[in-house]
Structures are given as structure tokens and as C-alpha cells.
Amino acid sequence: MENHNNVTEFVFTGLWGNKQIELLLFFLFLLCYLIVLMGDFIILFTIIYSHLIQQPMYYFLCHLSLMDLCYTTTVVPKLIRDLPAARKNISYNNCVTQLFTAHLLAGVEIFILVSMAVDCYVATVKPLHYVVIMNRPRCNILIIVAWVVGFWHSIALLLVVLSLPFCGPNQIDHYPCDVKPLLKLVCKDIHVVNILVIANSGVVVAVVFPVLLVSYIVILYNLRTCSSAGRRKTLSTCSSHIMVVVLFFVPCIYIYILPAGSENKDKEISVLYTVIAPMLNPLIYALRNVEMKIAMPKVWSKIAHSKLK
């Protein structure tokens, strides 16, 4: 632990190595972040101020949008600030704080996606018992479980990082502060630590992803017994869920299933789940969902009228 004093900050070595590209990405990521803020706030207000909040699917979607909003705010503003900067640095304390917060929110998001799959499964396979099974207390329990699991996932990674000696160098060819790029700077053998990190993050996403896909295959198979209207509604909902799951999990599996030190495209792939996926999620859920499209103008006209009074 005493070796930590040798490194008080980390320096991100030119995020993409070309000043013109980084300046272009500055405006691109700023636009993406503004879309995330606007899209998630629209979804949150639309659900909270409409009857949709009573439905479990939208209750979970409300929490998912909140996680997207918090997660991107943990990562993207720092990235936007660093892109045009001459020196891109972060203190050791801020780095581990970012790591803990990002993994906490991402862990919660993973298990909210699992909860949404459970909700979709019950609605399709057990429609007559849906109201009883997916009542509000049970939905609250699923959200609490998501936070508990996310906390233990992130605290385990944090304790691993805090136990590692950083003697220098302190340059990271990555963004944001994450466990894999930090492991490359550790001045001791990291074979055991690599296994722990892969078990903590890589195995989790590699197991949860196929389980989610299988659950949606079962849901689609059971649509044979549904009415044509119910089939269309479920297909629209499930296709949105599957798109979000693929956008989030595939990049995470690529990054966390490989050990630190392997030559891969972690930095470029990170853009997919830190910027692109959170930006697309509101568009996927808002534009592909009939109930959301009906509720949005009603809610926002109600808010506008209340402000004019």
C-alpha cells in the first residue's frame, strides 16, 4: 500500500493521438452528451408525470434512464474536457472514485436490464398472473437487488485496485479510469489479479448476456399463443430490449473477458458503451414505443400549461 504514494495522478496519453481528430470528437461527444441529457430527461418526465409509472416495464425504464444519465455524467464530461486540453490528467483519488462510480452504475444497469427481461417474460408466459407476480413491492425488491449486486461488484474492483502498488509510470492510453488500463501500470505480477477481474466483470457479462438472449428467445417462442395485437406490442417491446442489451453487453464482453496487457481496441470499443449506447437508448425506447409516443405530447403539453398559469 505504501507504493501508492509514488503515483498521485494519472495522465491520459493523447486520447486519439491527432489534435484535429480530438477536436472533431470534442464536438461530436458534446452533441452525444446533450442528446443523452435531453433524451433521458424526456423519458423520465414522461413516465413520472403519466400513468405509465404504474406499469412495471416503464418503472424499470425510468430507473434505466436514470442510470444512463448518471453513468454518462460520470464519464463523458471528463472526456469532453480532456479532448481539447494540452495535458489530460486525473488525480489518483478521482481516478478510483470514477472507477467505483462507473462500475456501480453499470452494474445496477445490468440487473435492471435483467429485471426488464423478467417483466417481459412474465407478461408473455404468465399473463393471467402478471399483476400478482409483478406488483410494485416486488419491482422495488428487484431494484434494491440491482443496487446491492452493483455495489458488491464495484466495491470488489475498488478493493483490488486500492491493494495494488503503482510505482510509475503513470501514463494511461485509455479513457476513462478503468481497472484494465490501471493493471498495466502495476509494478508486480498481475496474473492472479487478472483472473479476479475477469471473474468479477468478464464472467458476469459473459453469463448474463446469453441468459438474457435465451429468455427473449423463450418469450418470442411463446408469442404463438398471443393475439395479433398482443404479439405486435410484445415484439416491439422485446426488439427494443434486445437492441439495448446487445449495444451494452457486446462491447463489455469484448473488453472485460480479455486479460489486461492483451493488444486490443479497448479505448475505441469503450466509446460504444460509454457514449453511443446511452445516446441511442432514449431514441430506441421513445421512437419504437407507441405508448411513449402517445404519452409524451400529453405530458409536455400539461407541463407547458401548468407553467403558463
Describe this structure in words.
The chain has 309 residues and is mostly helical. Helix content is 74%, strand content 3%. The protein has ten helices and three strands. It has helices spanning 19-48, 56-82, 92-125, 130-133, 136-162, 179-183, 191-222, 228-256, 266-287, 290-308, and strands at residues 9-12, 89-91, 171-172. The protein has a three-stranded mixed β-sheet. Helix 1 runs antiparallel to helix 2 (56-82) and helix 3 runs antiparallel to helix 8. The longest helix has 34 residues, at 92-125. The protein starts with 8 loop residues before the first strand and ends with a helix. The model has no long low-confidence stretch (mean pLDDT 84).
Low-pLDDT runs: none
Task: Work out the strand percent.
Answer: under 5%
Number of strands: 3
Classification by helices and strands: mainly alpha
Rg measurement, Å: 21 Å
Average predicted local confidence, pLDDT: 84
Cα shape: globular
The secondary-structure element order is EHHEHHHEHHHHH
Q: What is the oligomeric state here?
A: single chain
State the helical fraction: over 70%
Write the layout of secondary structure elements.
Layout: E1 9-12, H1 19-48, H2 56-82, E2 89-91, H3 92-125, H4 130-133, H5 136-162, E3 171-172, H6 179-183, H7 191-222, H8 228-256, H9 266-287, H10 290-308
Parallel strand pairs: 1-3
Antiparallel strand pairs: 1-2
